[in-house]
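USER:
Class, as today's exercise, take the chain set out below, and explain how the chain folds.
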Amino acid sequence: MQYIQKEELHAIREIVLQRKEELAENKREDLAESHNIYTELTTFRIELLTTYADSLLMEKEAANEVIQHWGNNMANLLVNRGLPLNLALEEISYYRDVIGEIIKEEAKNNDFSLDAFYRVISHFNTIVDNAIQFVSKSYVKDYTEKINYAQYAIDELSVPVVRMTEEIGILPLVGDLDTKRAQYLMESALEKGSQYKLKWLIIDLSAVPIIDTMVANQLFKVIAGLQLLGIEVVISGIRPEIAQTMVSLGIKIEEIKSFSSLHQAVQYTNSFIESLM
């Protein structure tokens, strides 16, 4: 576009680049005071200011590429440091006003026509709007991935298969079992049972407060899968209220050895293996 090649735009770019350290420092001090925190984002501020300045002379597609790169890096920094998205949005909007004033002053000094001024400020506002869009999308993506990773780690810790001996493992379940966690239970039990080459797995329900139809069905799917792998399953921790619930739901476990305590289940599996030696 012809207006992007004007000498006046080069002058605006040079003014922004010359003042970028000053502008970045002003924002750092303002942020520290208003948020009562010290957040070192100076490098990203300078990069943003440089990108804003350079983008004045770029076509839309090229400007979008450099803004997207900045947005991805900024979002990654915020997520890794546990900082909110509004911090970046505040930075972006702050420099919209600052550079907008620079453009306005240069337009006055160089007698820009109204049409020329509108095209320049419109192009710049598009750049800023894209910066908001890119950093927001990237932040949500990075934050979601971090939450999912953390949830996976929590699920893994909450469904541990503990190897008691070479042949016996224990799977202590704690808390409620929702659909997602029940699915992870299936995956973890089958994977670890096969990996450890177990012959027995004790599933302990002592810390499971409720057994409903969904939990019971998933539990028996896990047991069936383990049996297909040649792993015998013993259930422990069947409290009276859980036993009553299972009976009322029509759940039958006659074919599966069960005990009221983990201690009894461990004694049983040990004695059974010893009898075969």
